[in-house]
Amino acid sequence: GDSVTQMEGPVTLSEEAFLTINCTYTATGYPSLFWYVQYPGEGLQLLLKATKADDKGSNKGFEATYRKETTSFHLEKGSVQVSDSAVYFCALIVNSGYALNFGKGTSLLVTP
Amino acid sequence: DAMVIQNPRYQVTQFGKPVTLSCSQTLNHNVMYWYQQKSSQAPKLLFHYYDKDFNNEADTPDNFQSRRPNTSFCFLDIRSPGLGDAAMYLCATSERVEGEQYFGPGTRLTVT
């Protein structure tokens, strides 16, 4: 079945450090890939997306590239801020599917 | 701004006492979803509506029901809440079933 695997957290970084959160997927079809962010006590916000191989999604300094050959969609940011502290979820939907298939989430804490 | 609105943000109910959570959207999206998210877990889809067509996930308990009286509104009814139903309930919308989903802020349900 379809699934998403994320690196285990929590991840703790100092402000201005480089961030990578790994995400790999297994899918029977051709999925669209997403990163969502959830701040404490809030709902999920769509951070970025990619709908086909080699697409790069980007938003607010975050980037992720859809790598079909490695079935990956790693999230990166060159310089994190304290305000980036949140839980990050990688997710996919396969073509003709409707359910977002989420990874377990990675908690990020950025310290001053 | 167009958005997904959930009311109330926090709801306390007693064991076995029916409760209704509400969701409205100004995005005019065809699809509306209800997810359950327990602490430190990924959201789990309960059901979704494509327009007026209701689609229940196979493992959603019968205790959970939903209504969508019009395009803008969708309700989650929990007929007899148990302690295990305490969770964050997230409403989401999308323009089409395989498209990106936009989430509301969630309703945190406490069962006493």
Query: Got a strand count of chain A?
Result: 12
β-strand percent of chain A reads over 45%
- What would the principal axes of the Cα set say about the shape of chain B? globular
Question: How many angstroms separate the termini of chain A?
Answer: 41 Å
Note the quaternary state here: heterodimer
Q: Could you list the spans of chain A in which at least 5 consecutive residues all have pLDDT below 50? A: none
Total number of strands of chain B: 11
Q: What is the helical fraction of chain A, as a range of percent?
A: under 10%
SS summary, helix count of chain A: 0
Helix-strand topology string of chain A: EEEEEEEEEEEE
How many strands, what sense, and barrel or not for the largest sheet of chain A? 6 strands, mixed
Mean pLDDT value of chain A: 93
Average pLDDT figure of chain B: 93
Brief descriptors of the model:
heterodimer, A: 112 residues, mainly beta, 4-stranded antiparallel sheet, globular, B: 112 residues, 7-stranded mixed sheet, 11 strands
Structural summary, described in words:
The complex is a heterodimer of chains A (112) and B (112). Chain A is mainly beta and 112 residues long. Chain A has strands spanning 3-6, 11-14, 19-21, 23-26, 32-38, 44-50, 56-59, 62-65, 75-77, 86-93, 101-102, 106-111. Chain B is an all-beta fold and 112 residues long. In chain B, 0% of the residues lie in helices and 52% in strands. In chain B, strands 2, 4, 5, 6, 9, 10 and 11 form a 7-stranded mixed beta sheet that branches. Chain B has a 4-stranded antiparallel beta sheet with strand order 1-3-8-7, with no helix packed on it. The radius of gyration of chain B is 13 Å and the shape is globular.
